[in-house]
Design a protein that fits this description.
Strand order of the largest sheet: 1-2
Distance between the termini: 16 Å
Structural class: mainly alpha
Strand content: 5-15%
Number of strands: 2
Number of helices: 11
Helix content: 55-70%
Length: 228
């Protein structure tokens, strides 16, 4: 199989033998959360996690309430705490005959492409899409409502920002997300990196040619794996 794109988590979930087991009994945790945890502050929840799984609490900040709750759920209803299931994540050992390639480019060129993509999303109807979802109940605070792009447009629709500010926030947060993605992938020693030549000042046609040429090198590299 040839896989392309996707987040770092999706990639590793497919490529590696990661442990996603023992996530607990959702019904049991839901009752506990309603009766006990929902009224607790972020710091109180984090203190509870420290008692249940100190190693996980060291890795998860109190502000990340969703992850704290998930770690508490696992610690209470699974047979192993979340910290005990992390070894497979650090091994980078795949059960498959794996070859991985990544593209990298000048940071300012990447940012320009991100900005262009956001502008294209806006002109292609992102605002109308979020309006329709809003009418059907989409709100910030949900997984979808807090996703990149939706959250900023929802803030605009609810009168908390201008459209210009919402677009600027999407671009900024997408850039930050791209940096975090690169940090994630850079930790994987199996990835062979290919540099896309070019600068932010290059015309779009030149950038597209550079991407195409570099992608051809990637395919050549992957094909050599099959031949060997």
């Amino acid at each position: 199989p040839l896989l392309t794109g996707g987040s770092g988590l999706y990639y590793r979930a497919v490529a590696d033998d990661l442990d996603f087991s023992n996530t607990g009994d959702p019904a049991l945790f839901r009752v506990e959360m309603l009766e006990e945890l929902s009224d607790m502050t972020d710091l109180e929840l984090h203190a509870l996690l420290e008692d249940l799984d100190f190693d996980a609490a060291r890795e998860i900040p109190p502000s990340n309430r969703r992850r704290v709750l998930k770690a508490i759920e696992i610690a209470r209803t699974g047979d192993r705490p979340v910290s005990a299931r992390q070894a497979s994540w650090a091994d980078f050992e795949s059960p498959y005959d794996l070859r991985v390639a990544g593209l990298t480019m000048d940071r300012q060129l990447l940012y320009r492409l991100i900005d262009d993509r956001v502008d294209t999303m806006i002109s292609a109807g992102l605002i109308e899409e979020v309006k329709a979802l809003f009418r059907n109940g989409l709100r910030r605070g949900s997984s979808a409502g807090d996703s990149l792009g939706y959250r900023q447009i929802l803030a605009y629709l609810e009168g908390e920002s201008t459209l210009e500010e919402a677009v600027r926030q999407i671009k900024t947060r997408t850039r930050n997300f791209a940096k975090r993605q690169m940090t994630w992938f850079r930790k994987d020693p199996r990835i062979r990196w290919f540099q896309v030549p070019g600068t932010a000042g290059d015309p779009l046609e030149k950038t597209e040619r550079s991407l195409a040429d570099t992608s051809a090198l990637v395919l050549e590299y992957l094909s050599s794996k099959l031949e060997n």
